[in-house]
């Protein structure tokens, strides 16, 4: 069975550490963006930065970080041999879980 990966990118971090801890205890690999990754790391949980899988830095003040084929391909892949072959050809892992909430655009 392939490893499970969770992508976490949250503005409101309420409950984040409990969720990350539970996912980690279940053997789920954590991948997170900027401040989310920082919070998880500060809680002494293992986490990869999104840039580790995209090989690209965050930009536009951190607003662009997960818009990349390595992320979207991992999220959108189906359990089909053709999708698995496409992912393997690009060295992209499937992303099993996505946890996100957006910052208040109107207020910022």
Characterise this structure:
Helix 2 (34-42) links the parallel strand 2 and strand 3 (48-49). This protein is 39% helix and 16% strand. Strands 3-2-1-4 form a 4-stranded parallel β-sheet. It is globular. By secondary structure, the chain is of the alpha/beta class. The longest helix has 10 residues, at 16-25. It is built from 5 helices and 4 strands; from the N terminus they run βαβαβαααβ.
State the separation between the terminal residues, measured CA to CA.
Answer: 42 Å
Task: Report the helical percentage.
Answer: 25-40%
Evaluate the radius of gyration.
Answer: 14 Å
List SSEs in N-to-C order. Answer: EHEHEHHHE
Number of strands: 4
Query: Which range does the strand content fall in?
Result: 15-25%
Shape: globular
Strand order within the widest beta sheet: 3-2-1-4
Sheet/helix structural class: alpha/beta
Number of helices: 5
Uncertain runs = none
- pLDDT average, as an integer? 89
Main beta-sheet annotation:
4 strands, parallel
